[in-house]
Design a protein that fits this description.
Transferase, Pyrimidine Nucleoside Phosphorylase, Chain A, domain 3; homodimer; four-stranded antiparallel sheet; six-stranded mixed barrel; disordered N terminus; 510 residues; Pyrimidine Nucleoside Phosphorylase, Chain A, domain 2; alpha/beta
């Protein structure tokens, strides 16, 4: 509804509140709101009569916080208006931003055009939209989904709002895992790819619900908080980086949207793809392998959704000029034996050092191999062998050490990585064959023990699926840096079913 | 996702912020949030270690507002925990309320049961749910709608959270208009019904987007801010009241929901019905007439939606043990000639005084007549005549004066109601027959002139549809209490097409 009062205004004195509201809000008394004809979530334009600065804010109405003729504002608005003591502010009703209307369209099940999605992303990023409005948008996307074109447009919109990495050499390769699983393939794939002469500027996240994110594990061996300029320099020089992407401002709106999705565990397919691809677009990735682990305890629990995601990733990549390969991987059991930043980092360094070759090493070479095939370095079916050759030769380890040194070294070898001395071994109460290992329970125990905040805390598995074990044999060790957390983790581990053994007792009769 | 950290906690010092947040929020530093394993919109339980008081709050994470080991809280939380200077608070992760899961169910298109809707309503009312979560719920309801059973359950849930009016005599009659039109039928229907010996405790709203709500117009002649006790006493004694329902706390959650709906002009049918019926249930109404004006400028713009609403109102009423009649009325032209609190109050008093009988009087007698038929006072088809008889006899006026005196009198006769002396007559630029009068434009002009905040401001029509007029003849008068507002309203009136005349010039050739 158009607001017909826009020529009527009131001059008010400021009552500042010394907090950050993030969103741009004006707090009006009930009386003033009626006088101006505005309601909560309507907009008013504020103009500082001393310096002429203007800003449009969302209206909040209170009966207690401000008196009549007082305008309550928070730090953010105060700064934007350059408010000094005694300033008087002209307040007048303003139209809602167009983005509110576009959100309504999406609520109504209509398809949005590129400009409309750009307007919504801009509205979220500039704090023009309230959390209530952003939540309605995320809910609408969850319920109605995105068309392919909408996904592409949203990817562009989210990338356009952030910073960009522009490398002087290429081709730029990348990988991404739709998470929920342990094991740091990135720390193996990146040095293999870089050792082969390609460019791979990998930005990673910290843990959300796992025992460690790639950024958490990498931080054990190197500094991961690098500026975009530094990332550019290192990548151009040595081919790869593994850094924390969180502070780089690559697609800032994504975080706002993810926060709301997280509340309801909403993962609308189109938004997941836009979220990943916008960050890839921001760093200029051209060849991308997407790892989609499928299993009961990871993010993607069914083949069907995995296949739908895989196909859409490829199509969206295509529209954005990126070559994408999506790989469905086995997410039913742990990938490697480590859970927690230091444990996972140490484990990965041991693989790079050639100490063993397990399912994590296997998967990493598959992913790196897929990239080699995608970029045309090898024929189809030959990528894995090349990746394994680079790993076995020690070149990947050498490249990883170069990367660590360039980022700011902490540890160059697995034996330099310290684990917590406070630990507890959990032994099997029975003999038998291991039927399954519950990934989620391993993660839960590692988290209760303090991971990822306590980097030396976590869990290490001593057994594998299908292994025959004897009663009293160690199943796993819990590491903690704090006695209380160790006790809680052990208590939890004893109650939960981490390792399931079979063929013990089929039935009992009395 | 269950939170497995619930036994781990941290003790923190309080940093209070002197504002009302309405929602129960804890502000944590980024470091502490990681340590506790919580994210924005997760929950933490706070326990004041001095007095043992506990409360569950929503998590907000900041990098600037609080330092590590500091817990930021607002007034509401401070009061609930009885925080004094130096108190230390134990903070530990808590499960999200069940209501969050129920909102997710609704987002997924599932039907909610009565207990689930009760939990959501309780979550909104107790401020347990964040605005983001409430917005997702309202959006889900908008997109998926309610089943009949859900509407009934939501009505009960919203009514149960508020106060109740329990009258010692009955039957209790009521009326409701799904708004957007001028004319105060309530101020005519209530005295007619009460004069006939029935009980009608009418709670009304103030204007939202119109020139005056019933509460605004009634306030010109009487006090409308009455306690529930006072409403009970007056209604039992004289049969009727016309009061402002906004502060009675009858179905408090409704306001929260309406705030979000208003943002996107969302009016999901089921929620509209639950909103109206919960308030009727709270005052114990048994026989209800619902007025559904249909027209291009009012809330209900199509016959189909009106019919759907009508049928659902009746069914929901049935399930709640209320007899409902829904009446589709003509909302294509103004109802009466007045726009604005004082103008509408004066106009209604003149009808009660028998000075004229226009379309507003006609509609009021139809509504009152429908109630007479519904409660069995007259046969079908005889209600209108009885209502008109009571109006014509002066008994309705007499009852209205009793009501005014009981509520706290301001004016007992139309001639005591003062209008603004500052006014401007708008005259016709042409001769012809009046084809239509734009209801929305009349309201817009009245609002720009200051209504409803300035009670003597508004617009008064001098012409009717199908009336033949001459060039220069007065079309309407704008009243204002402030020179600037009068100028703005006149300027707007001259640009807009309030009155459309026809048969003037059919075509011009050159």
């Amino acid at each position: 509804m158009p607001n017909h009062h826009s020529e009527y205004s009131q001059v008010m004195r400021v009552k500042p509140f010394d907090i950050e509201a993030k969103k741009l809000v004006s707090i009006l008394s009930h009386t003033d709101a009626v006088e101006l004809g505005v309601f909560p979530l309507d907009r008013v334009e504020l103009k500082n009569l001393r310096n002429g600065k203007k800003i449009v804010t969302v209206v909040d109405v209170t009966k207690t916080m401000v008196k009549q003729d007082e305008l309550g504002i928070f730090k953010d608005v105060k700064e934007k208006l350059g408010v000094r003591s005694g300033d008087r502010i002209e307040v007048k009703p303003a139209a809602k931003p167009d983005s509110v209307g576009f959100i309504k369209k999406k609520l109504d099940g209509e398809t949005l055009g590129e400009q409309e999605l750009f307007a919504i992303v801009k509205g979220i990023q500039s704090n023009e939209l309230s959390e209530i409005e952003t939540s309605a948008f995320v809910s609408a996307v969850y319920m109605h989904g995105y068309t392919l074109d909408e996904t592409v447009a949203m990817t562009r919109a989210m990338a356009s709002g952030g910073k960009k990495l522009k490398l002087s050499r290429g081709p730029v390769l990348d990988k991404h895992c739709i998470g929920g699983i342990n094991g740091r393939t990135t720390m193996i794939v990146v040095p293999i790819i870089a050792a082969a002469g390609y460019v791979i500027p990998k930005t990673s996240s910290r843990s959300i619900t796992s025992a460690a994110g790639t950024a958490d594990a990498m931080e054990v061996v190197a500094n991961v908080c690098l500026s975009l300029e530094k990332i550019k320099t290192i990548t151009e020089k040595i081919g790869g980086v593994i850094v924390w992407g969180g502070a780089l401002d690559l697609a800032p709106v994504d975080d706002e949207i993810i926060k709301i999705e997280h509340t309801f565990s909403m993962d609308p397919v189109g938004q997941v793809i836009a979220s990943v691809m916008s960050k890839k677009a921001s760093v200029g990735s051209e060849y991308i392998v997407i790892d989609l682990p499928v299993g009961p305890e990871v993010k993607i629990q069914g083949r069907e959704i995995a296949e739908e995601l895989a196909k859409k990733f490829i199509k969206v990549g295509d529209k954005l000029g990126m070559r994408v390969e999506a790989i469905l991987t086995d997410g039913t059991e742990p990938c490697g034996s480590a859970f927690g930043p230091a444990l996972e980092a140490k484990y990965v360094m041991e693989i790079l050092e050639g100490k063993f070759f397990d399912n994590l090493a296997q998967k990493s070479c598959e992913l790196a191999g897929a990239l080699f095939e995608l970029v045309g370095r090898t024929k189809k079916g030959r990528g894995f062998a090349l990746a394994k050759e680079i790993l076995d030769s020690g070149k990947a380890l050498q490249k990883m050490q170069e990367i660590i040194k360039a980022q700011g070294p902490k540890c160059l070898h697995s034996n330099e990585i310290a684990l917590s001395k406070m630990k507890k071994e959990i032994r099997s109460a029975v003999s038998g064959e291991i039927n399954s290992i519950n990934l989620r329970e391993c993660i839960n125990i590692a988290r209760i023990a303090g991971a990822p905040a306590d980097e030396k805390a976590g869990l290490f598995l001593h057994v594998q699926v299908e292994e025959r074990i004897k009663k009293g044999q160690p199943l796993f060790t819990i590491f903690a840096e704090n006695k209380r957390k160790l006790q809680l983790a052990v208590k939890y581990a004893k109650k939960s079913c981490v390792v399931e053994t079979r063929r013990m007792v089929l039935e009992k009769f009395q």
